Amino acid sequence: MTKTLRIVLDVLKPHQPNALEFSSALADLGEDYRVKLTVTEVDKKTESTIVTIEGADINFENIKNAIEKMGASVHSIDEVEVCGTKST
To answer: Is the pLDDT score of 72 beyond 80?
Structure first.
């Protein structure tokens, strides 16, 4: 069993919710989640962003569902950091 410690996502999102609201909603999904969002491009209706999430055990499916619920979409998983755990 592995634990995901860090994930970097390329996300296309609408202007609303704004970057702070969007990041806060993702951070609220995990007790120790830290979220960094960088807007890389803006057009009339959307923003291209790079979202970095760090935590002790990130649940990607929960993150992806929350992103989609806010009207955004994950274009790609650009980077991950995982660690193995030895089962007993």
So the answer is: yes
